Amino acid sequence: MTDGHHFNNILLGGRGGTNPGQFKVHSGGLAWKRQGGGKTIEIDKADVTSVTWMKVPRAYQLGVRIKDGLFYRFIGFREQDVSSLTNFIQKNMGVTPDEKQLSVSGHNWGGIDIDGNMLTFMVGSKQAFEVSLPDVAQTQMQGKTDVLLEFHVDDTTGANEKDSLMDLSFHVPTSNTQFVGDENRPPAHILWETILKFADVGSSEEPVVTFDGIAILTPRGRYSVELHQSFLRLQGQANDFKIQYSSIVRLFLLPKSNNPHTYVVITLDPPIRKGQTLYPHIVIQFETEVVVERDLALSKELMAEKYKDRLEESYKGLIHEVFTKVLRGLSGAKVTRPGSFRSCQDGYAVKSSLKAEDGLLYPLEKGFFFLPKPPTLILHEEIEYVEFERHGAGGASMSSHYFDLLVKLKNDQEHLFRNIQRNEYHNLFNFINGKNMKIMNLGGDGQGTSVVTDVLRDTDDDAVDPHLERIKNQAGDEESDEEDEDFVADKDDSGSPTDDSGDEDSDASDSGGEKEKSSKKEASSSKPVQKRKPKGRDEDGTEKKKAKKKKDPNAPKRAMTPFMYFSMAERGNMKSSNPDLPTTEIAKKLGEMWQKMSSEEKQPYIQQAQVDKKRYEKESAVYRGEAPVDVDSGNESD
């Protein structure tokens, strides 16, 4: 090929992890892109200072050093690739690759070669191992002959690798001739001073700027966010994450429509790990109107030398803007903001749900981003096709007020965004069509008619909200004449699945099922039906206030249903992750989650309810046998 070469299944050494990618060398330089999306490395040929080949177990490694001292290792080339790549690099970049040999003798004595910011341990003329000095967090002398190196504990490295290098010690005898010293400064001290010039020691002491009490939705909690020169730290009450800036792929600044909060998302590759859960996106929620003023703890010399035209000495403005500008200046990551899409309320996103989680779907210029949970980024180049579906397709209740959007990826993975309001269709369709994405159920006229129109045809102007219908059905299965003294619904929680009271004004009690029963009953009767006055009204038609039955305070507490136990367990978590969500919306969300749970997932709550039911039956039997009947007290017994 004259324009370049492509090589698949090439690993990026170091922090690249274990995921392969595609390596490309062309007349303008080098590039590596991880399979399935994520990190992309691009190297201009003008920045390349040296190239090396090395035979490693089962493959060949290509090493590339650039002007700012960074060293990249690409692993996985075949023997026949070496000659073709060498000729291409010589011809198009003017650099002749050198060949290095790997030492496999296992010897732990040799020499040290420091080239730029890379330290290489040599056994004879062969390389045993190498480490990047910017990854050194601390270095110190131990006695007069030993030099200790401590490395950054980066939470992203643990995402792909079981083991991480924590510390390394070199023994430098006083007879060493490579690092010549004197009586006051032995050879080990000379090595220590050399390493200190390149090690990232100072940034581990004082942060450049700190933001306290920041609400982070994933991983959830309130953290103090410290921005250092080469990494950021999230310090919470239970968790502490340290993230190298080299792991940051991109920043997203996404305002919430008609909401006093703004999302700032830090996308990582590799992700951080908490237990067995990986977090490729850190979702931060800032209060939009908060104004802050911050001074950066950087010397004028360092500002002029390293951060010129990237940072200012102080910042004042909205907190999310200040945070993003400082982090962008320190890390060099690009920032993505909302593009041309606008919703029918002139917002940047549309409300939808993904995997029973309500959130916002942001149509961006190069992808879709669903927030806050689970944070899901879909690049346009990864999409095979999209399909508009009528809400409830597949057996659920149908409603023309909503539709679903199915996104099929090229790797056969699917994402179904549900419960999108119908009035968002035209803006969303025009945006997707304008990006030349394939729409499966698009008609031949190219204007979104035919099948797409059928998906959104207004078949019933009085269609009900499917969320409310599910909640009403849930409440209908748990009807009871008794009040639940332990569960008190909020003022606006009349539609909650756990509210099964007999209040006549409740939305849950005013269901179409009652009307349907009465109409069937009237139709089945052949005799004339005597007209009766409405229930709860006097003869003149005025409403009569229903006397509320008093409850014996000594009566046993009612048994709770499995759904009530589930609501008690999840309501707090949902409230903390969605602080601005109304109580009625939380109730809808809980109802949806319960309906989609499998019988195995419901089993713990069913067992709790069974235990509570036995308790209630036992206490009720005692209550009925011991409670005296007092006709003058006004209390009623069973």
Automatic annotation (TrEMBL):
What UniProt keywords are attached to this protein's entry? Chromosome, DNA damage, DNA repair, DNA replication, DNA-binding, Nucleus, Transcription, Transcription regulation
InterPro entries referenced in this protein's UniProt entry, alphabetically: HMG_box_dom, HMG_box_dom_sf, PH-like_dom_sf, RTT106/SPT16-like_middle_dom, RTT106/SSRP1_HistChap/FACT, SSRP1-like_PH1, SSRP1/POB3, SSRP1/POB3_N
Q: Give me the stretches of Basic and acidic residues compositional bias.
A: 512-524
Q: Which GO terms describe its biological process?
A: DNA repair; DNA replication; system development
Which part of the chain is the HMG box domain? 556-624
> Where the record puts its DNA-binding region(s)?
556-624
Cellular component per GO? chromosome; nucleus
Q: How does it assemble?
A: Component of the FACT complex, a stable heterodimer of SPT16 and SSRP1.
**Family the entry assigns:** Belongs to the SSRP1 family.
| This protein's name | FACT complex subunit SSRP1
